[in-house]
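User: Could you go from structure to sequence for me? I need the amino acid at each position, not a summary. Structure tokens:
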């Protein structure tokens, strides 16, 4: 176990009270809180280095460009990629849209299949649906097992020559399930398909190595890993990025513009149309430095500790159903549950009155909710700043909800 209790002091928001109680923040799967180091890096950028990047032939613009490009180098190091394989964008959603519209639109055709899992977030479903309208490709889904793992048998049987791209979440934002991406990627590659990994939940919570995963494309968001909103990353293997079309056009992404056609800038710049999120990239760089100082193994081991404690304590509550693997070897810190027939929104409201922030709803994964046969679940999700006392507060709040609703 790694005790990270001392780092709470780095997160100013956690000193706040909410509804008269100390804030207990259990919604990090939606977005994480930000340490002072990140907030300071963003302020410092605006106070000392703010200018547009890659444009001005003056010192301040060069300083801004250097800071932006340093952030790219830091991101690349964090996931073991080459810096030219890292394109900045708005987040996981825009990264996957880039692949769907830049690769899918040009390479899929009627008869082809996009193989997704039923655990996908809408961000790894809807872009493929939109592109399928143009290409005629069909979407096919791999179900999960009763123990909330990916049904590997179904995966292998669905993986035939029609499948041109496989979209997998590395860690489910609802079930917490960690999927065996390398194993899935090996099979996909053997079948001739590309692999797009939604790593929105994985990169913040565990060491991710794109080479070890053998991901063709991988997407994640800065705001879920202590960074600011508005910045995300698309990793792609260099040769694939070079062959892929940009999904957005405009300034900065071109090599030349003629009246009726253009040529593109070198990768990754051809995927960064317009003024990029510069201060946000700098903030993400600072978030990565902060995580690296702690060490991703320590981040994971803290998550294992706090989540096992939460699973154990939730297990003490009668009529509480957890949707996700019981074993920490293949799950992360998102814990979805229902309590008797209390609506998750009511649970969330009762907990909120005690300063406890959890999520209630379908968590942007409606196909999964349908497959679980629940319209909504409550979800508590943990990160490095959570302590066992946060779990205890959650449990007390759930007991209160039982009393209020007269659950036996
Ligand atoms: C697994 C997963 N994929 C994609 C996303 C979308 O991320 P963003 O809204 O930052 O684009 C999320 C966010 O909740 C997520 O949890």
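Assistant: Here is the amino acid at each position, in order:
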């Amino acid at each position: 176990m790694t005790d990270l209790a001392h780092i709470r002091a780095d997160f100013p928001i956690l000193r706040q009270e909410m509804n008269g109680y100390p804030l207990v923040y259990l919604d990090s799967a939606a977005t994480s809180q930000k340490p002072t180091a990140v907030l300071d890096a963003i302020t410092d950028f605006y106070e000392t280095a703010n200018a547009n990047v890659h444009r001005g032939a003056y010192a301040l613009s060069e300083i801004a460009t250097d800071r932006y490009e340093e952030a790219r180098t830091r991101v690349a190091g964090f996931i073991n990629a080459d810096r030219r394989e890292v394109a900045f964008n708005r987040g996981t959603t825009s990264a996957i849209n880039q692949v769907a519209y830049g690769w899918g639109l040009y390479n899929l055709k009627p008869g082809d299949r996009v193989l997704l899992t039923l655990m996908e977030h809408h961000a790894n479903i809807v872009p493929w649906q939109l592109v399928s309208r143009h290409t005629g490709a069909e979407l096919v889904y791999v179900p999960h097992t009763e123990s909330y793992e990916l049904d590997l048998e179904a995966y292998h049987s669905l993986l035939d020559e029609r499948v041109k791209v496989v979209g997998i979440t590395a860690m489910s934002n609802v079930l917490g399930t960690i999927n065996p991406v390398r194993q899935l990627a090996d099979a996909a590659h053997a079948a001739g398909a590309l692999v797009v990994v939604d790593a929105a939940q994985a990169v913040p919570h565990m060491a991710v190595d794109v080479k070890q995963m053998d991901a063709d494309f991988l997407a994640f968001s800065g705001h879920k890993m202590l960074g600011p909103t508005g910045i995300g990353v698309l990793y792609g293997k260099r040769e694939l990025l070079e062959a892929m079309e940009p999904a957005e056009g405009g300034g900065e992404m071109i090599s030349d513009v003629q009246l009726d056609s253009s040529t593109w800038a070198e990768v990754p710049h051809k995927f960064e149309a317009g003024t990029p999120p510069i201060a946000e990239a700098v903030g993400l760089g600072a978030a990565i430095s902060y995580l690296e100082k702690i060490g991703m193994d320590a981040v994971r081991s803290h998550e294992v500790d706090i989540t096992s404690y939460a699973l154990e304590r939730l297990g003490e509550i009668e009529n509480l159903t957890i949707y996700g693997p019981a074993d920490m070897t293949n799950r992360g810190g998102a814990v979805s549950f229902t309590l008797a027939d209390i609506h998750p929104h009511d649970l969330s409201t009762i907990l909120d009155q005690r300063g406890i922030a959890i999520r209630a709803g379908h968590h942007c994964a409606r196909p999964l909710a349908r497959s679980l046969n629940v319209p909504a679940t409550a979800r508590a999700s943990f990160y490095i700043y959570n302590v066992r006392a946060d779990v205890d507060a959650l449990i007390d709040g759930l007991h209160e909800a039982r009393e209020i609703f007269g659950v036996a």
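One structural detail worth keeping in mind: DSSP finds 14 helices and 17 strands in the chain.
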